[in-house]
Design goal:
Helix 7 packs across helix 9 and helix 17 crosses helix 18. It is built from 25 helices and 25 strands. It is globular and about 110 Å long. The protein is an alpha+beta fold. It comes from Citrus sinensis. This is SWIM-type domain-containing protein.
Length: about 750
Amino acid sequence: MGKGKLILICQSGGKFTTANDGSLVYSGGDAHALSVNKESSFDELKLEMAEMWKYDPNSMIVKYFLPNNNKTLITISGDKDIRRLIDFHEDSGTVDVYVMVGEKPTDDALTNPCSRTTGAESVTPSDNLIPLPSVSGDMVLLNTLFPAASDAGDTRQLSNSAPAGSDLRQQKLIKSWKNCITGVHQRFNNVHDFRDALYKYSVAHGFTYCFKKNEGLRVTAKCKAEGCPWRIHASRVPTTQLFQIKTMNGMHTCKAGPDPTTRSKASRKLLASIVKEKLLEAPKCKPKEIAEEIRRDFGIELGYVKAWRALENARGESQVSYKDSYNQLPWLVDKILETNPGSVVTLSTREDLSFHHLFVALHASLYGFQNGCRPLIFLDSFPIKSKYQSSLLTATALDGNDEIFPVAFGVVDAVSDDNWHWFLLQLKSALSTCQSITFVTDRLGQLRASILSVFENSYYCYCLHHLTEELKRDLKGSYTEEVVSVIVAHLYDAAQAGTLDEFSKFIDSIKSVSSEAFDWILRSEPENWANALFKGSRHNQMTSHIAESFYCWVGELPELPIVQIISTICRKIMELMYSRRMDSNQWLTKLTPSLEDKLQNEMLKTHSLQVLLGLGSSFEVRGLGTFNVVNIDVWDCNCRGWQLNGFPCVHAAAVLQHVGRNLPDYCSKFYTTEAFRLTYSESVNPVPAVDQLLQASQSAQVQVPVQVRPPPLLPLTGPPKKRRIRWRGRPKRELHCSKCKGAGHNRKTCHVYA
């Protein structure tokens, strides 16, 4: 299935049943298959489905499950939902969708995200909802669901432009909470989930409650109405965090209606529940988007700060905690090795079990680099968004189309020479190759010594961007920006010069501008950044900017636990391998599109050149003030452009065109379509989500032993906050006018010179 497309297995006519673990199982009915993409219209999809079963399109409801979650059904109600569906299930290629007509009795269970029934005796809720007034009663509705919204100083208020259907959406949401509590023996992940479900249940059934016991091991609650027998008691299952209902009397003798004394607590809980459910549909949503959806769906205006706080709290509840996620790393390492045989994954801790470093090199990446990429690796490091000390180390390469190819990555507690040395040792063992590799990086630290000691036959070169930035800092204040820009331009020309004469010419140009810059450049070890002096092969790649694309995968994400960061990077690599493999299947040329364009540009420059016959395979090429010798048998030109780039320079292109040779036959194998396809020939298999480990441990009622602890917290940056202390015993200074020199006023309020 192509990227952005999905096969829908449309099912209707069956029914859902609840399994022991709370998941929903669909059985019966019949099924049809449809194809959708990100351009598909929801209205057209509904019409097509309605035609299959002869349904009324206006009464149809279409739902689906999220990946690895058969407890929560998500409703498709627009084109945006179709695009989300494709994003969630694009890797699987197919997804089951369920078509229902009207509001069936089972909808309560289907849309209930917190129902965990175990098949035990359930309490049948009343069909009566909390009264929802309309028009002038909108403020009563607001006080019922968000009581604190009507308080003075709160940023939430009723929107005058609220949609007409907001009351209906609110009723539907509350109705979905009716079965949050089903009866005795029902289990919850922890005490917090039980309290949340209890609150939703009380809102849906229109009563308030008070706690008789509210502890981490047991919770007992009763209806707040005097004489009402409704009561519930739950306690923790021994040796686990699970919470189970022990006793419950589901009968009410009171009237429905919330208690004003619980207003502030109810507002916070209800808001958190709504945001948490929306977060399941769009994990990357932003506070502004959350506030807009709540305004649209419920007619409630929510300030940015409160939306951000609710979003952070919901993320904290729905994700593995940042601290616990480090303890899930051993499980994730085993799953990566299990799903992707041939990969190299190494995890190490310090003596106190705190996280030290992690190395990941997937088999598909190692195979692609060794069989299709140039022996050129870019090393870089980036900070990770986290409250703990952690950084990302990357080793990336270039494919035949001059695009980033991830070779390996690592996470360390700090960027240091020792951690870089450890990372290079792991990379050396993962590659297991004897070929000479060129590494491109900055000049900081002892990285050069580590590279040359670990990779004996390798070469080390500086990133020209980092070099020029260092030069600018050292020259700052001594020269104007115009002079510095001229020096930097000459430095780039000197670095790209292929011959020693050209290099010397540009260096002399710098000396004529600034002797200080000339001395600085000579001390900067030009043999590690100038083409004319470099002894290895850097394929004319002067900077390490390509490595920054790797960081964009992580930098654009919100702050996530470490296991989700690793899983996200693996998923990104999987998508990259698949999409580029599919794209290359459409190529019809011998060379990659990038090199085809470069050769076309070189061919356009050959019209001003004159080719003269030489001896054997050697030719003389004359231009405007230039004279070059080209040997097509050994792929050599005295300008050294052919040797540096791996494809014919303008002089070689003129000769090959003159003798009727095919230019693609004289290009490096790394630029061929065949090599590109070989680079992406291996696939990255999906890595299971860490949620499966949590579900397994909870079902087995065992605690995961602590194997990895988080690294130290990040130190606070900036100056310490100072508290201003006012001395009350000091008299207030009297104002004096600077015009009339009088006391008691200033020059703005002076009446003498008014």
